[in-house]
Every structure is written in C-alpha cells, then in structure tokens.
Amino acid sequence: DPWPNSNLMSEITVDPTNSNIVWVSTNFGLFKSIDAGATWDRKLFANLTDFRLKPGSPNTVYAISDNDFFKSTDGENFIEITDILTNASGRRVIDVTPADPEVVYILTADLQANDYVYQGFYKSTDSGETFTESPNTVNIMESQQAWFDLAIAASPTNADEVYMGCLNIWKSTNGGDAFSRVNRWNVNSPSYTHADIHTLKFFNNVLYACTDGGLYTSDNGGASFTDVTENMAVTQFYRMTIGNNNAQVKCLHLFDRIN
To answer: What global pTM score does this model have?
Structure first.
C-alpha cells in the first residue's frame, strides 16, 4: 500500500494511449501505475498540487508544488525548471491544451498575510522550458480562499482561450494577458454557477465546472451554464438538533445546495 494515512490526492489522470497507465499526484509525491492501479511506483517525491500529461506525448509530464515546477520527458526522471516562475506561492494550478501541445499555463495565488490573492499567471510556448508572465494585475481570485478552491482549464480547440475559477469563473481570450469575469455567483443569469470553483475541465469541447453548489456545463464559451445536478439529492447536512421539550421539533443546518 503506497498511500500513507492522513494525506491528500490532488489529481488523477489515465494515459490516453494506454488505460492501464494511471497517474496520481499527492502531497507526498507523484505516483504511476502500469497495471490499472494494482501496484504503484513513486516517480517524484514532492508536495504536489497538480500535474498534467503533455497532449500527444504522455511520457512528458508536468508537475507543480506551491514552490516548484517539475518536468519529465520519459515519465521516469524529473528535473526542476525555475525560469521566471515565482519561487513561493500559496496555491498553484496548471493546464495544457491539445490545440497547441507546446503550451503550458500556470496560475498562482499569493500567500502574503494569508490573503491568497492573485499572484501571477504564466505561459510557456516551449513545453515548459521557459515562461512569460502575464501583465494582468486584476485580482481574479476575488477572495481569500484560493487555498480551498482554485481551478484552470484551457480550451482544447483554442490555445489562447483560458478559464480560471475561484469564487467566480473568469475567461481570457488572449492567452492570459487579460481576464474578464464570466459570472457572479450571487447574480442569477444565464452564465450563473455556484461559488467556490474546485475543478474546471473540458470533455468533448464542453466546459465542466465542479462547484460547492453542483456541477455545471457550458458548450458556448461560458455564455451560459446548465446545472446538471439540479434534480439530484445532493444536499449536505452539517448539524441537527432536537427540541428539549418536544422531540418532534427538529432543526437542520444545511450546507450549500445548494442555492
């Protein structure tokens, strides 16, 4: 059993060319299985927050911690690449795109005074060897909770189209040089999604947003989202109490669901 107790996994990916090869990033390393999860080998020891396989070349692996960026070209040996990347963050997420396999995006949140505000957005066009920092200075995190929820997704058909999420979803159409807000979690509109964006992923050119309030999808670039969990019984109950003088009187404290 390679999984120590009381530890976290941040991402899991199946090799698109071989379903027996599975990768998992954890806060105690990057693990690889070549037998569909029956056994595991640790390929990189680090407190990782995210990783990606290079589109079209799954032996090239990018992995990040809050302080480091690692790259492997053989799926076995990793080197650390610093370039201009900041050397300390409160949280980092990474993404790639089949629209241009050489592109790598990294989004970072700052840890100064535990505020987790926007720190930087970095783009590589040479498979992670060098990076350019975005001129953006807008705090697209909008909160102090990037430690809890932070996500990024690059369009599979347009390498310059990038989405990020923390409190709301933001979109860039110029490779991260500038972002515009797609929605507001407390405003009912066609582009509405619940707050606290934990995951953004594209499947079959549809953008999926996994939030504290459900799973939302958009097939039109974020112009509108559909709540696909609207009719699911996914309320989370946090607490319950019973009246001292009347056992029929009960009070529930509900978590997000959700709306």
So the answer is: 0.88
